[in-house]
């Protein structure tokens, strides 16, 4: 049994949308499923993920998951992805004085290809704020 499995699962459930979106994108690229918990714990052990699933090194995580080297950059919501780029979308929703954010795997055109919460209110009622664009290094 994995030590701390319950707290790791809770952390992923509460804050892991960026990590889970990258994992889904990588699985689409490689056509290989990966176990969420062991992968998460490995990336955390390497120092790529901080407290509350804060992603410290998205380029390193995505490169590890795909087996190819990627660079990541932030782009405005209007940015149009180019062929070969992978987009992770960041939504923002102001709800009763609280500001909530949520990441999803994008379809390359600013639409949602995969939502870790499968119908998140932040996506439904919020607005697309920005994009994280992953580009393969040649």
Quick take:
The protein has 138 residues and is an alpha+beta fold. 36% of the residues lie in helices and 28% in strands.
How would a crystallographer describe the biggest sheet?
5 strands, antiparallel
Structural class: alpha+beta
| Assembly state of the chains shown | single chain
Beta content: 25-35%
How would you write the strand order of the largest sheet?
1-5-2-3-4
How many β strands by DSSP? 5
Mean pLDDT: 95
Low-confidence stretches: none
Distance between the termini: 40 Å
Write down the Rg.
15 Å
Helix/strand order, N-terminal first: HHHHEEEEHE
Looking at the structure, what is the overall shape? globular
What's the helix count? 5
Helical proportion, percent range: 25-40%
Give a quick set of tags describing it:
138 residues; alpha+beta; five-stranded antiparallel β-sheet
Describe this structure in words.
With 138 residues, this protein is α+β, with helices and mostly antiparallel strands. Helices cover 36% and strands 28% of the residues. α1 crosses α2 and α2 runs parallel beside α4. The protein is globular, with a radius of gyration of 15 Å. The model has no long low-confidence stretch (mean pLDDT 95).
């Amino acid at each position: 049994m994995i030590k701390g499995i319950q707290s790791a699962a809770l952390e992923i459930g509460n804050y892991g949308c960026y990590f889970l979106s990258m994992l889904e994108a990588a699985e689409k690229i490689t056509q290989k499923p990966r176990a969420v918990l062991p992968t998460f714990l490995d990336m955390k052990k390497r120092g790529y993920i901080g407290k509350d699933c804060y992603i410290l090194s998205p380029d390193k995580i995505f490169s590890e998951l795909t087996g190819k080297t990627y660079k990541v950059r932030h782009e405005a919501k209007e940015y149009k992805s180019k062929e070969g780029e992978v987009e992770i979308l960041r939504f923002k929703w102001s709800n009763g004085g609280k500001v909530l954010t949520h990441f999803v795997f994008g379809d390359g055109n600013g639409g949602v290809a995969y939502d870790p919460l499968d119908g998140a209110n932040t996506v439904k009622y919020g607005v697309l704020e920005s994009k994280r664009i992953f580009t393969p290094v040649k």
